Amino acid sequence: MRVYLSGPDVFFPNAIEIGRAKKEICAHFGLEGVYPLDADFSGLLQLKSMPEMGYASFRLMVKLMDSCDIIVANMTPFRGPSMDVGTAVEIGYMYGRGKPVFGYTNVVEDYARRVVPDGFTVEPFGLIDNCMVEGPVHETGAIVIRYPAPEGAIYTCLDGFTECVRQACKLMSAGPG
């Protein structure tokens, strides 16, 4: 089973090492981890503009997601109180394609408690993020793994990821119903 490894990890200085570690964890469970940086980006260098490069990158990620059976998404808040927006799109894409969605976060506090009051309504559902990104995990029959990463390690700790992969293997091996 091929697992698309979604998350903001690709933006980290140690992105390659994180991808390698996640793929090793997947292999331990008998899964093939597919990391976004596995894509062949060589064709992007011939493009004439940065927007064209961005759109081509989007198409590469879609191709990778289409080649996978499930997604495991890093839903840890990134650049604000919410998860990475690209990861949210990938969750929606995979859910829309009928593929199981699994997720984890290294921050355990509910989204509503992380948002700075600004006079606008915040969803009061007790979820880790907007219901539109946690909903696909729930519909898969899973829960978002909330792992309390040690201080300073919310972007490097892979314990929540490992538990999420374990949950995915258990649910996927159980089959329907």
Write the layout of secondary structure elements.
Elements: E1 2-6, H1 15-28, E2 32-34, H2 50-66, E3 70-74, H3 85-96, E4 101-105, H4 111-114, H5 131-140, E5 145-146, H6 159-174
Parallel strand pairs: 1-2, 1-3, 3-4, 4-5
Structural overview:
By secondary structure, this protein is of the alpha/beta class. The protein has a single domain, classed as Rossmann fold (3-Layer(aba) Sandwich), CATH 3.40.50. Helix content is 41%, strand content 11%. The protein has six helices and five strands. The chain has a five-stranded parallel beta sheet, sandwiched between helices. Strand 1, helix 1 and strand 2 form a beta-alpha-beta unit. The longest helix has 17 residues. The chain starts with a strand and ends with a helix.
Number of helices: 6
State the helical fraction: 40-55%
Domains (count): 1
Classify the fold: give the CATH topology. Answer: Rossmann fold
Q: Compute the gyration radius: what is it?
A: 16 Å
Unreliable runs, pLDDT <50, ≥5 residues?
none
Work out the strand percent. Answer: 5-15%
What's the CATH class label? Alpha Beta
What is the total tally of β strands? 5
Sheet with most strands: strand arrangement: 2-1-3-4-5
Q: Main β-sheet: number of strands, strand sense, barrel status? A: 5 strands, parallel
Morphology call: globular
Helix/strand order: EHEHEHEHHEH
Mean pLDDT: 95
CATH architecture: 3-Layer(aba) Sandwich
The chain-level structural class is alpha/beta
Separation, N- and C-terminal Cα atoms: 19 Å
